[in-house]
Amino acid sequence: MTEVYLRRLSRWQAEQQRAAVADVHVTAYRGAAGAEYRDRQGFLDRFEQHVQRLGFDMMVADAGGLVGCAYGFRVERTGEWWSDFRGELPTDIEELTASGRTFLLAELMVLPAHRRHGVATLMGERLLARLETDLVVAAVDLERPGDGEDGDRGGRPANPAQETVRAWGWSKLGLLAPHSPSAVREVWIRRPLR
After folding, report:
1. CA gyration radius for the chain?
2. How many other CB atoms sit within 10 Å of the CB of residue 64?
């Protein structure tokens, strides 16, 4: 495999690389045939908002072109991010959010040809290493029946993100359940080691 180099991007650099990052997103999360444009545009709309968020930070993996990306930002102190949390949010999580000490790992994506080579882990470690936060959260799509090896997702594992956070030793906190049942996601947390 080609050697992969990691580099951190500033907000300005991230905005300049948005087309390449969108290409990685579409390839990493290839959906149903014909959905690429919608998936790409939806990602670009979210990305445009995300790069403006407080504490935005981004790491990319490059092997003669982008092969992976991880980025996130601080969760707003208002706690709005937790509004769709199912059940009662633990008090310490509310307090860490209100104090501005919570970081959201918003995206972690690696091209299929570069998966299972430690690229996601290296990007995640480097991105989170310099954070001055007490809690990192990630919302991961639920694994759905039919999405696995025999499903309609082109033979990809049902949920690489779920496998990754589990392998990293993160803890499952609960579910985010917005209005659409198809948008239910698991919330995973990690308390950085100091």
Report:
1. 16
2. 9
Among residues 72, 87, 44, the alpha carbon closest in space to that of 139 is found at 72
Q: What is the pTM of this model?
A: 0.84
CB 70 within 8 A of CB 123: yes
Report angle CA 103, 65, 21 to the nearest 5 degrees.
Answer: 40
Tell me the H-state helices in the chain: 11-16, 18-28, 36-50, 91-98, 119-129, 160-167
| DSSP-derived secondary structure for 109-138 | EE-GGGTTTTHHHHHHHHHHHT---SEEEE
What pLDDT digit, counting tens, does each position of 43-55 carry?
999 999 999 999 9
Tell me 168's DSSP state: T
